[in-house]
Amino acid sequence: MEAPDLREWVSFDDADGATWHFDVTFLTSNYGCIYGQGCPGVLTEFAPEYEHGCCTYGAHFASDADRHAIEAQIARLSDDEWQFAAQAAAMGGAICTNDDGDTVTQMIDDACILLNRPGFSKGAGCALHQAADARGERPIDWKPDVCWQVPLRYDEHTEDNGHVNHLLREWKRRDWGEGGAEFAWWCTDDPLAFREDRPVWKSLRSEIIELIGSEQYERLVDYMKAREQDDVGSRVFLPHPQVRRRRERNGAMKESS
Length: 257
Description:
With 257 residues, this protein is an alpha+beta fold. The protein contains nine helices and ten strands. The chain has helices at residues 24-27, 64-74, 85-90, 127-135, 145-149, 200-203, 205-212, 214-228, 241-256; strands at residues 9-13, 19-23, 95-97, 103-105, 107-108, 111-112, 115-116, 125-126, 152-158, 164-170. A four-stranded mixed beta sheet has the order 1-2-10-9. It has a two-stranded antiparallel sheet with strand order 3-4. Helix 7 (205-212) crosses helix 8. The protein is globular and about 60 Å long. It starts with 8 loop residues before the first strand and ends with a helix.
């Protein structure tokens, strides 16, 4: 029986009257990206040997600004950093408009053209991410918005009365649209990706601040720390469903041994 998707949330209003909602269950979990550590990928069958991660279908750009920023970073890549530089040049660039009118990265050999594959001199992985690391810069300044935001999901919604709600939660399978249902594996759906030694609100600090700003992040941190030191209420955060799932599996294994 799967662990129910019970969630703990915290909300607060900012100085402008907007409300901020945070998925505390995910933010306090020990989720961590396992790219290069056996990630099964997002094909219809497990395929860790391809080392695609979630780059199989390329990146969709959120805006013209997003595209232009990445084009500038792509121009900084040298041929020895990018496996498919020559092919991209022959195709007219790494970015194109698909049949649906969306601005996306080109595809080659069934994955994003910016993804270096196993056997490349720099190793498998996003050429932009690798180049940022090599220069001591932030990968989030080099990669398309969707690529550095996942598995965080930020949404903003204005009610009919004009009240603004901001929401920060985990990126779920459904957020990929209809295609997400076909993934054989999605990282926030499985205990395999929950093995970090610190919570998400610490490990993804830069990404969270980029999404919500430093002021709201500090308010969130203050809540987390106060909660941990609370002598009256509960110090224990509701565990993520996949953490509970792993505990249940481990308990069942102990009982059967």
